[in-house]
Amino acid sequence: MPKINVYVPDDLAAAVRARQLPISAICQMALRGALDREAPDSSVRITEHIETDLPFSPHLASVISLAPAAAARKGSLTVDSEHLLQALLDEEENLILRGLDHLGLTRASIQKTLDLVVPDKAPADDNDVTYGPAARVILEAAVADARLAGNSVVNGANLVWALANASTGYAADVLDHLGFFQVTTHQALGLIEVGVGHTNRYAPAGQAAILTELAKITDRLARLEASLSSSCS
């Protein structure tokens, strides 16, 4: 993605770093907001087309705004699951990506599989791309998952779980091919995002929950490795 330099006073820069705020996502939201005020009917404002009383996290809002461009690069005039997954990679700063990296689902491996699986067509103009029924279903599933988890916002983990279970597009196939359901669980996915974002501030009980779930994942991987080794011998 192109880069834009933003200059801020020293005290503001120090405060932003101390709070570990998602700088890129916040700036993108501000710029999108300015554009939306001039073009209120913009098709990227998907939150106007789904029923939710939960806000999207800044990172996730940025992912949603980047998905039409991801679809356009592949020549699609409607956003589907693979374009939301690509937008998650394009946004770069979503906390859940760091957690997936640690589980072996690296950004590079996801990108490579997307490039192999998703067909290439003649690029389209991202201004012509819209959010169709498939994308709305996926985002509604992410909202429902956030409610089920008791979240105050819809976050990257909610989207990833919705993508892994999507019935349209290629995202579910990509994640399944990379062993998504073999290395994580629904509960662990949510805890991973929380753990990555609040490692130094999390309460002992929360830390214990995260470690418990990660221990389950480690044990599962060990059993899979042992099974593969025995079948190859």
From TrEMBL:
Residues 56-176 form the Clp R domain. Pfam families: Clp_N. GO terms for molecular function: peptidase activity. The lineage of its organism: Bacteria, Bacillati, Actinomycetota, Actinomycetes, Mycobacteriales. Keywords: Hydrolase, Protease. InterPro entries: Clp_N_dom_sf, Clp_R_N. GO terms for biological process: proteolysis. This is Clp protease N-terminal domain-containing protein. The keyword Hydrolase applies. It comes from the Bacteria. It comes from Rhodococcus globerulus.
